[in-house]
Amino acid sequence: MGAVFNRAHFVFTHSTNESRKLTFMQKPKNTNHWWQNGVVYQVYPRSFKDTNHDGIGDLNGVIEKLDYLQALGVQAIWLSPFYPSPMVDFGYDVADYCNVDPIFGNLDDFDHLVSETHQRGLKIIIDWVPNHTSDQHPWFIESRSSRVNPKRDWYIWRDQPNNWGSVFGGPAWTFDRQSGQYYLHQFVSEQPELNWRNPELRAAMYETLRFWLRRGVDGFRMDVIGMILKDEELRDNPPNPDADPNAPANDLFGRLLATYNMDQDDVHKFIREIRGVLDEFDDRCGIGELWGELPRWVRYYGKDGDELHLPFNFRLMWEPWQADAMRRSVDALEAALPSFAWPNYVLGNHDQPRLATRFGGQAQARLAAMMLLTLRGTPTLYYGDEIGMENGLIPPEKIQDPQGKNLGAERTRDVARTPMQWDDDPFAGFSTVEPWLPISVDFQERNVRAQAADPASLLNLYQQLLHLRSETPALHGGSYAAIAVSAENCFVYRRQAQGAECIVALNFSAESRQVCIPGYQCGKIILSTTPGRQETVNFEGFSLRPYEGIILIPSK
Ligand code: NOJ
Fold first, then answer.
1. Which one of 128, 159, 282, 435 is separated from 174 by 20 to 30 angstroms, measured CA to CA?
2. Does residue 5 register a pLDDT over 70?
3. What residue owns the CA closest to ligand 1's atom 8?
4. pLDDT (0 to 100) of residue 11
């Protein structure tokens, strides 16, 4: 298997006899689904581990690192696209939904990955890109070949464009000389958009889901699922009154409100159909990428839970580093959820700057890890965040991302896609040759091998949090309630299940804070972001160090 290290290298500082006994006594009969109890880990395959020495990660690289992921304590891996693709948008331009790009391996490698994943008791989720294909997909080649081609209506063709813009800059329509019409693409022009109003197209897309479900995948992360259906008349979008005045001139997408191109009422009937396909198989999970405001977003759970299991919730990722902002976001989400809906949280992914950079540094990254892994709902981790990887420095001539190329270096997503830092060998143990994106300059200090050997490292904190979460029902399945405290810039909440409870106290400020929690006498710290802090504290007033977070078992 070639694992770099095994579980024994980790340090279990929280496992005092007392906390073990408490958590053991709390253990319930497990009635929940795997996608509720566990934690999802996003692998960006290009950047995870290269085993065939071409500078690009591959499926065998993911297999090689499964032991690492199992020891870390995650439940499922989500793979960003590995399909055959011209890679204009690094795999989000799919040329064949039912195969593997030779850069990443082949279908046998994929089957091997599924079986190795399942053997370790882990689940595998793959990306599905239903809104658009590559312009090299055979469907589009046929569709553009003539106006009377049977697949013409599988894409969106018009004589005149509307005012919509592309997320990656410029207009969302490109004129096709050969057939004399414009086609729609809200990303690069090489990503023509599919026409979900066409029943044959829908049937073909559902078959692509079944292809992978039969191969054993446990779920899909569905790319921009809220965009698959457009206003039937393709009306112009209204101007966005909050548009960034400093945005580049070609950011036409940001200048308009997403009124007619996203979250249309009739999309839900197709999400229910997609869910129907998942339900043909046992216990599979549908996760959707969604950007809309809460009222639009919450509808993707369906009227009674018949749409997505987990509409991705990115809200905490967009919040400033302030306790109140985080608390308000969590409380608003909790209030918006119907009783059958299960929450989820994301703090990093391949489209956003690195969490450690965005939130201001490594101390903040430790606190963010504790928040993410102790809120109610399924957390998704992004590869490398567990070692605090920061934004990579990408020289302008090395920018690969179409968003960075079209909208300017400060918008490039390459910064969050640099190779995983496994060790301090040349190329960070990611590859033996120059990788497709530069390795971050800090790889000699910040890497998995170094952090696995350091009990105080962020990696060890993640591992402790993940294991504590999985063995503590109050944390992985319990209720959530914010606790009002007077300490400035602190976010405190209670998690409770079957009479057992945990209190999480997070100090977002750069100064120490005195916290008083009414209604209890004292509490035992079972885990702190400060390595080794394990005392019993008095709830009438205890101190949190700068950016410190603690998890407590209280007593009345
Ligand atoms: C969202 C994906 O996360 C992003 O990486 C991609 O560029 C767009 N969708 C287009 O597929």
1. 128
2. no
3. 92
4. 29
Q: pLDDT tens, 139-169?
A: 999 999 999 999 999 999 999 999 999 999 9
Residue 479: what pLDDT? 97
How far apart, in whole angstroms, are the C-alpha atoms of residue 232 and residue 137?
Answer: 24
Read off φ and ψ for residue 250, nearest 5 degrees: -90, 5
Tokens of 341: 């809906």
The rounded Å distance from CA 92 to ligand 1 centre is 6
**Residue percentage of the chain with pLDDT more than 90:** 93
Domain boundary (452, 473, 494) is at: 473
Q: How does the average pLDDT of the chain come out, rounded?
A: 94
List, in order, residues 6 or more apart from 241 with CB less than 8 Å away: none
- 168 alpha carbon, distance to own chain's centre: 20
Options 223, 401, 423, 548, the catalytic residue? 223
Any residues with CB less than 8 A from the CB of 225 and at least 6 apart, and which?
130, 131, 271, 288, 289, 290, 300, 308
Instruction: Write the pLDDT tens digit of every residue in 341-378.
Output: 999 999 999 999 999 999 999 999 999 999 999 999 99
Q: What is the Å distance from ligand 1's center to 29 Cα?
A: 39
- Based on the fold, state whether residues 97 and 208 are members of the same structural domain: yes
**pLDDT at residue 25, rounded to an integer:** 32
Q: Name the residue type at position 523.
A: G
Task: For strands 157-158 and 181-184, give the pairing.
Answer: antiparallel
pLDDT tens digits for range 38-50: 999 999 999 999 9
CA 413 to centroid of ligand 1, rounded, Å: 10
CATH number at residue 532: 2.60.40.1180
Distance CA 501, CA 528 (A): 17
Residue with tokens 């391949």: 350
